[in-house]
Design goal:
By secondary structure, the chain is mostly beta strands. Helices cover about 5% and strands about 35% of the residues. The protein starts with 10 loop residues before the first helix and ends with a strand. InterPro entries: 6-blade_b-propeller_TolB-like, Quinoprot_gluc/sorb_DH_b-prop.
Length: about 525
């Protein structure tokens, strides 16, 4: 955690103060032995990296290091391995290059395509299809986009105009399905329905950013009163759900559906993306990664609610789900386990909830449904769609399914947990979550346990334990390569920064050249 002294606050910092007022130093020295499930106790120390634990008979090695914001790996038709460097994080303010590197057998990396000035970062997802890379990113207006990139550097945007990406959540993983269509995960705008204080840097750059829906929905007309940080930051303003910051809503107001909605899996023909794009499933918060098992069943890993300013939801889990075409997965009115967020157990302290209104009438400071479910034709999601529930804020990311060569683990879903953003995601968090690789059965046996597979001996990123590069940091992508090995893209180290808030930036500082690619193989 940062040990900076709190800087003087301007309008932006003052507006965000509610999300950072408690818990700033709660994680210092809070390293505990990991005991999430019985498998944690069965893991053994790696011979190569002693602080890393994994099952006996497997070993981990580092095959690339010194990377800046790596997010994805992919292989071409000849089996060459490539890694994407994002070019930035939330708002591309870090001055890093967006590029694709080839990873050599000896761990060297060679730039093959530089995308600076040709796309707006960050690159989150990358896949290889019919002789080219396909990547997810933003455009210059911060809309979410998908582009085709050839090895000789030709860039063609095939899909754009995803409005939700004008926020902290953009398009993420994308993969080709066995049906010949491309599937892309798209995050929702904001945390839990509103463009609130945490969206300040994004609203200032793109005032029309907002959450969207896959179909027409009817609103309850819930508005929250927030500091108006625009034009000098004076006074307050009412902000409603599914609309831009500073826009109030009314009961019964209809939000039109969009074929490019956020919080979704979008599907399209990569040869005619704009004409064919449509939602495959929706109602996720931050949809990060997808994978199919041998039965061609689709699974998705989702980052759940933050207990943060605006509409704080004190959830207990992040979710990995079975994907049913056409299904709604409950955001923003149901928790990760599909319980209603209006349940008392999800309510934070009333002081964390801003003044709340239905239309212009003041109502109780509590969590209200934002959507009129009956009028919108929506029902509480079916719990049979839950594959596994991770610890809240563990941030399950881009998963993959193990091949037959992995024996007892074949056809299981391996999910990287990026980890929490400390007091940004939950000011009351008193220990780390995530920073590990987990596995979940996909056989349909009803066993929804999230098992540990690769993790540090103690909770938290290796850098927080003074051992950057010696253990797992921020795993974001897991892919099984043509050689049958597991490849882990480790984003690198970061820390919270009060100074960035005062400067009007998202309050996370990311370290350049701290990213890695790991490989896990069977050794016996």
């Amino acid at each position: 955690m940062s040990t900076e002294e709190e800087p003087k606050r301007g309008p932006i910092a003052s507006a965000m103060a509610g999300s950072v007022s408690v818990g700033i130093n709660m994680l210092s020295e809070k390293f505990t032995e990991l005991t999430h499930d019985a498998d944690s106790k069965k893991l053994t120390a790696s011979a190569n990296f002693p602080m890393v634990r994994l099952p006996e008979g497997y070993e981990i090695e580092k095959i690339a290091a010194g990377l800046t914001y790596p997010t994805s790996v992919a292989w071409d038709d000849q089996g060459n391995l490539y890694v994407a460097e994002a070019g930035g994080t939330f708002l591309a303010e870090e001055g890093a290059s967006a590029r694709i590197l080839r990873v050599g057998a000896n761990g060297t990396t060679t730039e093959v395509v530089n995308l600076d000035g040709r796309i707006y970062p960050a690159i989150s997802g990358m896949t290889w299809h019919e002789g080219a890379f396909y990547i997810t990113h933003r455009d210059q207006e911060l809309n979410g986009a998908v582009s085709r990139v050839t090895l000789n550097g030709e860039v063609t945007q095939i899909l754009g105009g995803i409005v939700d990406s004008k926020s902290d959540h953009q398009p993420n993983d994308l993969r080709m399905g066995r049906d010949g269509r491309m599937y892309v995960c798209v995050g929702i705008a904001g945390n839990s329905g509103f463009m609130d204080e945490n969206m300040i840097p994004f609203v200032l750059k793109a005032p029309d950013g907002r959450p969207t829906a896959a179909q027409d929905i009817v609103l309850k007309g819930v508005n929250i009163e927030l500091p108006d940080f625009r034009e000098g930051g004076k006074g307050t303003v009412l902000t409603g759900a599914f609309v831009p910051f500073g826009t109030a809503t009314e009961p019964g107001q209809v939000i039109k559906g969009s074929n490019k909605c956020g919080g979704s899996i979008l599907v399209f023909d990569p040869n005619n993306a704009e004409a064919t794009v449509r939602p495959y499933a929706w109602g996720f918060r931050n949809a990060i990664g997808i994978a199919w098992n041998q039965k061609n069943e689709l699974f998705i890993a989702v980052n759940g609610y933050d207990n943060a300013a605006g509409r704080p939801i004190n959830d207990y889990h992040d979710g990995t789900y079975r994907v049913k075409e056409g299904a709604w997965y409950g955001w923003p009115d149901f928790a990760a386990n599909f319980s209603p967020v209006t349940d008392a157990k999800f309510k934070p302290s009333s002081s964390a909830i801003p003044p709340t209104y239905i239309g212009t009438k003041r109502v109780a400071k509590e969590l209200h449904f934002l959507i009129d479910h009956e009028a919108s034709g929506l029902q509480q999601p079916d719990t049979s769609l839950i594959l596994g529930l991770h610890e809240v804020n563990s941030s399950p990311s881009k998963p993959d399914v193990a091949p037959e060569s992995w024996g007892a683990y074949a056809d299981q879903l391996f999910v990287p947990e990026y980890g929490d953003f400390q007091w940004i995601t939950n000011p009351l968090r008193d220990k780390f979550s995530g920073s590990r690789i987990t596995r979940i059965e996909t056989s349909g046996s009803g066993e929804n346990t999230v098992h540990a597979f690769v993790q540090n001996e103690k909770s938290g990123p290796a850098s927080q334990q003074g051992q950057l590069g010696e253990g797992i940091e921020r795993p974001y992508d897991v892919k099984f390569g043509p050689d049958g090995a597991m490849y882990i893209v480790d984003f690198g180290s970061n820390r919270t920064s009060l100074k960035r808030i005062a400067d009007g930036h998202f309050p996370i500082e990311f370290d350049k050249e701290s990213g890695m690619v790991w490989r896990v193989t069977k050794v016996k």
